[in-house]
Write a structure and sequence with these properties.
The chain is mostly helical. The chain has 3 helices and no strands. The protein is globular and about 35 Å long.
């Protein structure tokens, strides 16, 4: 597989790790924008998504850089919806 430089980089150790995190972030942000996820459920959903990424063999999802990148990506969707920002310390 060819890796594209414009693909989001989440600070994971491998391309597969970045893909897994991007899949998780895309799922959560689409649930935010189409109304399937309420704000009170968000931190739990992120925690669940990170656990899924870790189960795929990418434990580094809990490192600082990926957590900050996940936080930033999800906060963009939150701000578009008028929601309060999330903090990586809340999940």
């Amino acid at each position: 597989m060819t890796w594209h430089r414009d693909f989001p980089n989440y600070g994971m150790f491998t391309q597969r790790g970045d893909i897994a995190v991007h899949r998780m972030v895309t799922c959560i942000t689409s649930q935010i924008t189409d109304g399937r996820l309420r704000r009170v459920e968000l931190e739990g959903r992120i925690k669940q998504g990170c656990a899924w990424v870790a189960e795929q063999g990418h434990q580094e999802v809990y490192d600082t850089e990926p957590q900050c990148d996940i936080q930033d990506a999800i906060n963009r969707a939150c701000l578009r919806e008028g929601w309060q920002r999330v903090s990586r310390w809340d999940w």
